[in-house]
Amino acid sequence: MAKKQDTAVERVYNVPLRKEYMKVARWKRTKKAVIALREFLSRHMKSEDVRLSKELNEQLWENGIRNPPHHVKVSVKRDDKGVVRAELFGEKKEAKSTAKKPAKKEAIKKEEESPAEEKQ
User: Fold this and answer.
1) What is the side-by-side order of every strand in the sheet holding 71-78?
2) Residue 28 has what DSSP assignment?
């Protein structure tokens, strides 16, 4: 029997949440929606390690604990190690710049020095 190699997989899902969160009390609905989303992604991506992005979590909690969205569209990536990362569909991550930004203290010092030099 040939062994499968773990490769990176990327998919887009429209995850139904209403059917699951309607089974619990109103004040527990968004918590249940988050659990249902994790279970859905775990089942479909064949991995136990599921991580939700900050934007996705904020989208789920946007209307409070009693009124989560009925469904959410997510783009999901599984890496070689089996870690599943879910993001809102259409959200683009900003590329981290390699250039360092000056620290606030350094920027303030530069601003203070320039007017002092002009006065002398």
Assistant:
1) 9-16, 71-78, 84-88, 50-52
2) G
Overall size of the chain counted in residues: 120
The pLDDT tens digits of the residues spanning 75-87 come to 999 999 999 999 9
**Structure tokens, 37:** 């989303």
- Helix orientation angle between 54-61 and 29-45, rounded to the nearest 10 degrees: 140
8 A C-beta contact, residue 36 and residue 20: yes
Q: Which residue has the higher pLDDT, 99 or 81?
A: 81
Count of Cβ atoms closer than 10 Å to residue 101 Cβ: 8
pTM of the entire predicted model: 0.73
Backbone angles phi, psi at 14, to 5 degrees: -105, 100
* Fold of the 1-90 domain: Ribosomal Protein L31e; Chain: W; (3.10.440)
Q: Which residue matches tokens 């004040």? A: 27
